[in-house]
Amino acid sequence: MYLFIDPMCPECWSFEPYIKKLISEYGHYFKLRPIITGSLSSLYNPTPAYIREKINDWDQTAKMTGMCCDPDYWLVNPETSPWPVSLAIKAAELQGQRAGTRYLRKVREYLFLSKKNISEIENLVKIAERVNLDVEEFQKDLHSEAAKHALLGDLNLTREMEVDQTPSIVLFNREDEYDGLKITSTFDYELYERALMEVIGKHISPSIKPSLIDFLAEHQFVATKEVAFVFDWSMKKTERELLKLSFNNRIERIHAKYGSFWMYKQTT
Predict the structure, then answer these.
(1) Where are the alpha helices (DSSP H) in 161-234?
(2) Inter-helix orientation angle 97-112/121-130, to 10°
(3) What are the phi and psi torsion angles at 178 (to 5°)?
(4) Residue pLDDT, tens place only, 176-188
(5) InterPro entries from the xrefs (predicted)?
(6) Do the Cβ atoms of 107 and 7 come closer than 8 Å?
(7) 253 in a structural domain
(8) Were 238 and a residue from 80, 122, 151, 228 both cysteine, which residue would form a disulfide, CB within 3.0 to 4.6 Å?
């Protein structure tokens, strides 16, 4: 499963609950490979009209999806280039796919929640520290031909598969010559289930859901919306279940401009 995303795209960020649920229910049937794409040209010296458009886009996406993307980012960091962070994600992936996935998630938390400028090298290195990468190796890879080559490979794959919107998913079955199935910018979970079964060629049943605390332990930091979506709960029930764990000092609530996130507390 190829997941085409722009690291600065709020719609891609709001797609996180869908990816978590697909992995939770059907992850043993596929391997997820994020592909970094989007407009990687510099956004330095953006026009006031462009900034207003971004603020409105982030605000509306957050309100519609429940995944916070703080539009005030564009008031404090209007001059942002996506090229450095895209290279950083590929540099992190050189330490393994899991390392790259952790890094990608933390990058977007810095961007959409903390309003940190992710085109600044200092912040990119701090993120590497936060997700326990080999920081010295990461700093070397950040300026390496290997990271640049990997990013250009993603951009070439985007063109080859004719992906022109994000988020998009392309599914392949390695065991046959199936051309692949592309789904673009669709927020319909049942559609992804049907597509996965079509590519696999048989009906498959979702796995049993993990316990809430196990889910939180695995992901460490999640939005209320992500929990509600994965567990098929109402927001009211989700809030209630999370508060129980919070009262027992198992998780900590982190308030965002839109909604809340929950941080798992390590037990000794």
Answers:
(1) 189-200, 212-219, 224-231
(2) 120
(3) -60, 135
(4) 766 789 999 788 9
(5) Thioredoxin-like_sf
(6) yes
(7) yes
(8) 228
- Where do runs of H (alpha helix) occur along 113-266? 121-130, 135-142, 145-160, 189-200, 212-219, 224-231, 235-247
Q: Is residue 251 part of a domain?
A: yes
Range of the domain at 233: 212-264
Distance of CA 155 to the CA centre of its chain: 18
Rounded Cα gap, residues 122 and 117, in angstroms: 9
The answer as to whether 198 is a domain residue is: no
How far apart CA 32 and CA 219 sit, in angstroms, is 16
Pairing of strands 33-36, 2-5: parallel
What's the Cα-to-Cα distance from 165 to each of 22, 76, 162, 257, rounded to whole Å?
20, 27, 9, 27
Using one digit for the tens of pLDDT, what is the confidence trace for 64-79? 999 999 999 999 988 7
